[in-house]
Amino acid sequence: MDARIAYIERLGDARIPSPLPSRDIDPEHPNPFVADSHYIPLHITRYEGLDRPGNVLFEKAGPREKIFFDPERSAAAVVTCGGLCPGLNNVIRSLVFSLRAQYGVTRIHGIRYGYHGLNPANGFPPLELSPELVSDIHEVGGTILGTSRGPEDPQVMVRFLRDLGVNMLFPIGGDGTQRGAHKIHVAASELGYPLSVVGIPKTIDNDILYVSRTFGYGTAVNAARHVIDVAHTEARAVLNGVGLVKLMGRDSGFIAAGATLASGEVNYCLIPEQPFELGGERGLLAVLEERLRRKRHAVIVVAEGAGQHLIPRDSVEKDASGNIKHADIGLFLKDRITAHFRSKSIPVNVRYIDPSYMIRGLPADTEDSILCDGLARNAVHAAMTGRSGLIIGLVHNRMVHVPSHMITAGRKTVSLDGELWKSVLAVTGQPAGWK
Amino acid sequence: MDARIAYIERLGDARIPSPLPSRDIDPEHPNPFVADSHYIPLHITRYEGLDRPGNVLFEKAGPREKIFFDPERSAAAVVTCGGLCPGLNNVIRSLVFSLRAQYGVTRIHGIRYGYHGLNPANGFPPLELSPELVSDIHEVGGTILGTSRGPEDPQVMVRFLRDLGVNMLFPIGGDGTQRGAHKIHVAASELGYPLSVVGIPKTIDNDILYVSRTFGYGTAVNAARHVIDVAHTEARAVLNGVGLVKLMGRDSGFIAAGATLASGEVNYCLIPEQPFELGGERGLLAVLEERLRRKRHAVIVVAEGAGQHLIPRDSVEKDASGNIKHADIGLFLKDRITAHFRSKSIPVNVRYIDPSYMIRGLPADTEDSILCDGLARNAVHAAMTGRSGLIIGLVHNRMVHVPSHMITAGRKTVSLDGELWKSVLAVTGQPAGWK
Amino acid sequence: MDARIAYIERLGDARIPSPLPSRDIDPEHPNPFVADSHYIPLHITRYEGLDRPGNVLFEKAGPREKIFFDPERSAAAVVTCGGLCPGLNNVIRSLVFSLRAQYGVTRIHGIRYGYHGLNPANGFPPLELSPELVSDIHEVGGTILGTSRGPEDPQVMVRFLRDLGVNMLFPIGGDGTQRGAHKIHVAASELGYPLSVVGIPKTIDNDILYVSRTFGYGTAVNAARHVIDVAHTEARAVLNGVGLVKLMGRDSGFIAAGATLASGEVNYCLIPEQPFELGGERGLLAVLEERLRRKRHAVIVVAEGAGQHLIPRDSVEKDASGNIKHADIGLFLKDRITAHFRSKSIPVNVRYIDPSYMIRGLPADTEDSILCDGLARNAVHAAMTGRSGLIIGLVHNRMVHVPSHMITAGRKTVSLDGELWKSVLAVTGQPAGWK
Amino acid sequence: MDARIAYIERLGDARIPSPLPSRDIDPEHPNPFVADSHYIPLHITRYEGLDRPGNVLFEKAGPREKIFFDPERSAAAVVTCGGLCPGLNNVIRSLVFSLRAQYGVTRIHGIRYGYHGLNPANGFPPLELSPELVSDIHEVGGTILGTSRGPEDPQVMVRFLRDLGVNMLFPIGGDGTQRGAHKIHVAASELGYPLSVVGIPKTIDNDILYVSRTFGYGTAVNAARHVIDVAHTEARAVLNGVGLVKLMGRDSGFIAAGATLASGEVNYCLIPEQPFELGGERGLLAVLEERLRRKRHAVIVVAEGAGQHLIPRDSVEKDASGNIKHADIGLFLKDRITAHFRSKSIPVNVRYIDPSYMIRGLPADTEDSILCDGLARNAVHAAMTGRSGLIIGLVHNRMVHVPSHMITAGRKTVSLDGELWKSVLAVTGQPAGWK
Fold first, then answer.
1. Cβ <8 Å between B44 and C45
2. Regarding beta strands C168-173 and C75-80, do their DSSP bridges make them parallel or antiparallel, or are they unpaired?
3. A379 has a pLDDT exceeding 60
4. What is the Cα–Cα distance from A120 to A109, expressed in whole angstroms?
């Protein structure tokens, strides 16, 4: 088998016996550890029974028999960056519980307001994360640590962590954050300071490369589905009602596609991966007009990054994280649909809903709660072994180690040939192409 | 006692024995009827034990011993008008069940798309409302009949109803709708056609005069509260975060005030009844700046009709119902707050949420479900006695008859001297005045 | 007007100006106070325009211009007793916020595990209730103070409170708790210790005399309604399915009746106030058999205190609060229904659900959150004026003072002649009597 | 690679071009089909990079380029059997939509009350499943078809289906149902009647062999988690409170384990796979007593099939499906815990909750909605190709074909060496063994 193994860096040999099985072991199930030689492949479909050429193998995450850091002399830090995402507090809580209860690490610092809190010049001292403080935080959304966008100097951050005695850093954030995490990992190496940097990828859009599913995505799809149901109700209640829902998805349509499948009431699902046209015989306006004639109502879901080529713009804006700010496709569509039908003297009632800020701050649902707990515990296991420069990801429902530099090389998008998109086409009945 | 009785018109004498106690009567509780001589006062507070001068007495709603219409020869029509409101389908369902099961009226027409469906020229024939059709509709939001804004010719509508043989009309809608209902009532009188017009007031804003509470309001407050909680989460998660939530309330702040009380997390509640200023030493911007300095975050709730005097505008727009269209105070505040802090180089993160369309289409919550059921059943009782030109309202938790012309004389607003607003001031700690 | 005023005891003259309007007063709405001369009548229906003979007037609750206790030298205590009820934490939180923010009372003791915590021999020292501690507690169910059943010696409790310097006690609990509160009030008088005892009635069953509605009831009805919906789903899915739901209601059927109205799917609602029979031509079994023949499924709701006369029992048990323990009518009905149909060889599938413990621990819904906040703030207002031996109650949507001894004289029950029960008969179509 | 391919029977050659891409094809993504040569392996972990010996490959599900049945001459039947499970109506709806919209099959029969409806002697004629009938059914729980337990004669059922002209049968049910489905498949072969039998496995317990996840499981875990949260609230509110929750799980602890992980509040999770003891130094009672001493409260989750060896019983009962009826471990534990502490004069308050019937009838959550839709659509694809004697299963998030006889050979259980159980041990901190 010629699959390539995704190489994970280690700070040194892991020689300390893990304190993990500290409680009584069931003699019939003595081994709570994962071996280093277990891997999960990126691609699992076999063609004529054969593996896919160029497959990649990821190390299976989990507790190891030997660890690198002495728990009694160790300290950890947790930092949350970027926009809110359901589950942040669950991850923080499980990191604290796992570090303490499973390994006995008690000094755990909560960094305030993202990477800003790692630069002492900004004046936000860390919060001490005790079990009492975190015990109920998973019941509320947001992050108790606060968050922010934008980088700080890696050297400054490493020195600050060294002064605190921190040897394990858990950055929770999107690809920008993990790029920053990688720089911290590199800066620590250069300074010769043994720091394990183990990231937990956070993107409500679910667009992290290689990873099947990120936390918060499920909660977002669930909330989005209920918004679509309400838009459907509004659309059905008036003559030629059009429910138009803009959902998160800067570069990928995973939330839009997932919510479309879950709702079963969407007629057009527009995502960044599939360009569409407004005008022309087979453009959205003509197709919508035809549907209203037959059915008197319609529901459209549009991801925020869809149809950007349609919007005239003067200049490109970026936010503090360096992400390109998108022109508002939702308002644009609302105006264009209204204008189109008005020009034809056909009555139309467009109900436009943009629920983004109502979704990001929700507490994690059940699925995401379980996912967050698993990600956090496996991050602790990885950090204790001295691994660094990686993130914990879910691949085919298995927790694995993925090198940070791999996931920051791009973003995952909805494959127009894949099962997700084919399901969307089947459920909506929308055209496969718009030209 | 010098209280005035609110006079209700009747089409004639009620001489037919009510079929109501058709099933076996419990000998110990033989009388299911309400007497005509029972009244509920508008004001109930006694000053030094005395009644309020100029008090008004409303007829208690409920089944009467004698009715006017012969159930077997009767037919009813139901029409829903204006914007969506949680509970419309509950009202439709309970009207149908009550007409059929309690009185034996089986011909019940559902008018399509508001008053438009009462003008045959528009081409929307009524829907027959069978028990099978309506049995599960209370579980979903919206209205199965469809709705619209805007009037039709009362004469045309009465003739259409007469042709259908309808002698009881139940218009469900706001003050515009009830004004239209009153015109239908007058037109029927003029034509000498015995038509009972019994309205059920619908306003999610809870701004119907005299009436303690309208259906949909409770569901809206509940939904709004959860939106505020999410805004609070967003505001707390960033440095100088401001959660700004715009809620429904064109002329009144009931939803904003109720959601503020329920949430317990709001710092400023801005409503149409209480003008506020942005600038000046005690204006909103100064007060907000002071709070951010101390607490680093804030939550603002603003009713859509608040602060209209602050917004420069060229002309006044009206919607199809004749309501003045408000300039968007939410976006205005967002811009002004952002500009203010930017001009002072203070970082600020405003999260603006406008959940209106997400709330109107919800199904009724428990409280509203019970309210809708009571309103509908009492509307049927009133119509069967030949009463006309009235609405059913809840006054001090009792169902009463209110003449239509009384409620269309104005709109109920939040009293700045009353308990509701005093509670809001206590819970938020916001200034009682802004100058 | 010959109505009697419900007399409220006061510890002495209120001479201290209230600190209430400490923030800037709006010159147009200068008076935040309620006058002592404002009353709310118990009965509001007017017969031929006349008041009801023997009506009772309750003092309107609210802030007074003069208070009795000097806030700076005052301390308060809060105690929660009896079973869980949604809203306990809301009441605790609002008491703390109101005492501090509105009056400046900062020493607030949280008594642990009910009255047991007022006897130092039990060894549960009070918890100091700071704003930080209580700020988020309204989001979770239960009571942060803990609760218990059963009394302690009033003399012991008063001495303990005196030693703590507490002059305002807020007991939150049912009629047993308020009876205990009254004994504390009397014992303090006898000891000459100026102690304001202001209770907040807590009964999920809504069975406090005179009071329209108690907190937790609305949340319970809402939860019960959803359980009924699931029972309906189970019943419809199988041949001759019977969904049988037992709800709380030891002596009264308010929850059963409210949930029946809200659900709209119940066929038989059985409550303690209306005795029913199983056997006989018009007994429940015969009526149910007839329905299954026609409809193949049925939904029954039974309050825990209903039909107790049907259950053979040997002895009467009481719980620690002295309440008679009821035999389980739910299991009894399940067995009898199953046996009846089996004896006739008719297939039947009874799905029995008892959700009590799943309901009591829920967080308060929106309506109850607002109610709890109002009850707590008005309790503080009353205590500050030196009033004692009363509870705060909601009567016709107005907050009033009710003497404790009035509400402990009995329990409120569902009137079989009233609107609530008539609505239940209309919605279910069940027989008015069972003989 | 020596992996074995799970062989799927076919009724004959698939020669008819699929009508699937009937709408306009996007020229860049022309192929909506899955090739027959694509497989998904049962085991995906690689040891030292090597495949697991004896691995099994399952055919990937999905639309094929050629089909066996001519859609215009085809008819389908859907039957739901066994206990309720969230998602049954979603599966029915998606089967109907997929058969009609994707293939043009319009004759679709809904079989009433499980296999009973396939025996004409029982007198339940099928329901015609039109798009109008099923369009909103996914919003409610249960099954519109009704369900039952127990078998019918396969020959009788096949003749009934043949008389109806049905050539595709979709049985939705657990392993008993799929065993019955396999007998129908065999009986049809013997009669020479070309009938595709494609099952959709239904088990809320998630215990179908080989399949990663069955529909309804996620919804059940979510509901169970909220019940645990309430039990936790009850336990914390009283001295030595013990929240005891019995969850579904006759032979497997998946629901108990999943809800334990999601809640994060469980101290002891008891499942059928891991025997436990009550008495002895390391038995549950001793461990619980020790915890109450330290923490004053505890939460226990027990799967219905756990600890059966502890319960003395006289005889073994079976239900109509032939499943062994379990003695009630929940009530047993409640009694034993209460007795233990009473015997030691330690106060204890056990709150026992059994929510099973409140969970089975819920509507499907978002995750399950998407899963049901995928299962149903892939079942249609499989049946149209003439495949028979299989079920559609989700393996590593891919839809696959699994031969019916494979899944009925046993039941999937929680591996005590696997990640799920290790996570439970980590989250609860409970002993790995009880001896």
1. no
2. parallel
3. yes
4. 14
Chain position carrying tokens 């509307």:
B379
Q: Which residue of D has its CA nearest to C223?
A: D358
pLDDT of residue A30: 58
Name the residues of A annotated as catalytic: 205
Neighbouring chains of B at 3+ CB pairs within 8 Å? A, C, D
Nearest Cβ partner of A433 from D26, D45, D90? D26
Nearest CA to B105 out of B79, B83, B137, B73 is that of: B73
pLDDT tens digits for range C197-238: 999 999 999 999 999 999 999 999 999 999 999 999 999 999
Q: In angstroms, rounded to a whole number, what is the distance separating the alpha carbons of residues A298 and A284?
A: 12
User: So what's the pLDDT on residue A47?
Assistant: 87
C133 to chain A: which residues are within 8 Å by CB?
none
Of the candidates D9, D18, D58, D54, the one whose C-alpha atom is nearest the C-alpha of residue D37 is D58
Across D38-61, b (16+ Cβ under 10 Å) vs e yields bbbbbebebeeeebeeeebbbbbb
Of B114-123, B168-177, D318-327, least confident by mean pLDDT is D318-327
What distance in Å separates residue C299's CA from the closest CA in chain D?
14
Which residues on chain D place their C-beta less than 8 Å from a C-beta of chain B?
A: 136, 139-140
- State pLDDT tens for residues B255-296: 999 999 999 999 999 999 999 999 999 999 999 999 999 999
Q: Which of B140, B353, B358 minimises the CB distance to A227?
A: B358
Which residues from chain A sit within 8 angstroms of residue B351, using beta carbons?
357
Nearest-CA distance B223 → chain C (Å)? 9
- What are the structural domains of chain B? 4-214+364-407 (3.40.50.450), 218-361 (3.40.50.460)
Give me the residue from A148, A227, A361 closest to B234, CB to CB.
A361
**Nearest-CA distance D356 → chain A (Å):** 18
Is the pLDDT at A411 greater than 80, yes or no?
yes
Instruction: Indicate whether B1 pLDDT > 60.
Output: no
- Is B205 part of the annotated catalytic residue set? yes
Which residue of chain D has the CA closest to C139? Answer: D233
pLDDT attached to residue D316: 53
Residue contact B238–A113, C-beta within 8 A: yes
Write the residue in B24, B37, B94 that is nearest to C431 by C-beta.
B24
> Are D245 and D224 in contact, with CB atoms under 8 Å apart?
yes
| Residue A320 predicted with pLDDT over 70 | no
Query: Considering C24, C26, C175, C205, which one is annotated as catalytic?
Result: C205
Q: Decide if pLDDT at A194 tops 90.
A: yes
Sign of CA dihedral A370, A375, A376, A380: positive
Q: What's chain D's average pLDDT?
A: 93
Distance of alpha carbon A364 from alpha carbon A368, whole angstroms: 6
The average pLDDT across B309-316 equals 73
| B chain contacts of residue A357, beta-carbon cutoff 8 Å | 230-231, 234, 351-353
User: What is the tens place of the pLDDT at every residue in A43-97?
Assistant: 999 988 788 888 999 999 999 999 999 999 999 999 999 999 999 999 999 999 9
Average pLDDT, chain B: 93
pLDDT at D15 (0 to 100): 92
Mutation for B interface: A90, A115, A238, A359, most B CBs within 10 A: A238
ipTM of the complex: 0.93
